[in-house]
Amino acid sequence: MKFTSYENLDTVSSLMFASACKASTARYKEELSGIARMFHVNSFELLKEDLVQIEPEMLLLDFDLPKLNGVRGVSELRRLCPKTNIVVFHDHATDEDEWFLFKAGVRGCCPTNIEGSSLKMMVEAVSNGELWIRRKFLSRLLAQMEQRQVKEQAKHGDQHPDIHGLLAQLTDREYEIAVRIGNGESNKQIAYSLEITERTVKAHLTNIFEKLGVTDRLNVALMMSAEKRQGRNGSRVRKESNVVHLAVLSAQS
């Protein structure tokens, strides 16, 4: 069974729910009504078929979906449709489960009973390329990505890429936005601080990704982290002392 909402709010183009729980599905449908075209599947086999056919922008996945088989099933879904942003909802997932889910490439993890306002905030954040991740996992995830980056560079005989040279390509405004991404600010926070629109922030991000040769804000955060270790971060932009350094949006405690 599928349901569709035809009211679009330019937040996310299409959104799929995968859950056998009727109560959760009904609540998510009500809370997110009008945000996107919405689809629903209630089994893993149907999910695999519809995911390939529809290619939704975002998948809200119940970790208790029958026959999902935990992290292994999530990894299979990532291979089937790598462009779809996956957010996992759970009641009983362990910290280890959650950690391996992020390693598998999910963009967020939330409790099934997440409040409606937080649910909408999460959808907006993930659709803007941000992560919805608990703080306890963030530094661990960044450290692992940096280690992987170093290994790849060593494999290709380049252990010391010129990150400063890459960042020097950015305009002052682009660099300021990159610093704010490294400080954990969302698009909305950046737009408010710089008194520009979120659309303008997104346009700057597109240019930043292209100039730095990356595809998401997490890799921008890694580059800013490396720049900071070299003692250069903030040389072009004054840093605000009250900003917590989270590297990407972390909206959960």
Instruction: Evaluate the radius of gyration.
Output: 19 Å
Oligomerization status of the protein chains: single chain
Separation of the first and last Cα atoms = 35 Å
Structural class: alpha/beta
CATH topology of the largest domain: Rossmann fold
**Average pLDDT, to the nearest integer?**
81
Task: Output the helix-strand order.
Answer: EHEHEHEHEHHHHHHH
Care to count the β-strands?
Answer: 5
Count of DSSP H/I helices: 11
How is the biggest beta sheet arranged?
5 strands, parallel
CATH architecture of the largest domain: 3-Layer(aba) Sandwich
Q: Helicity level, as a percent range?
A: 40-55%
Spatial strand arrangement across the major sheet:
2-1-3-4-5
Describe the fold and architecture.
- The chain has 253 residues and is an alpha/beta fold.
- The chain folds into two domains: 114 residues, Rossmann fold (3-Layer(aba) Sandwich); 94 residues, Rossmann fold, CATH 3.40.50.2300.
- Helix content is 50%, strand content 10%.
- It has eleven helices and five strands, in the order βαβαβαβαβααααααα.
- It has a five-stranded parallel beta sheet with strand order 2-1-3-4-5, sandwiched between helices.
- α1 links the parallel β1 and β2.
- The longest helix is centred in the middle third of the chain and has 21 residues.
- The two termini are 35 Å apart.
- The N terminus and C terminus are likely disordered.
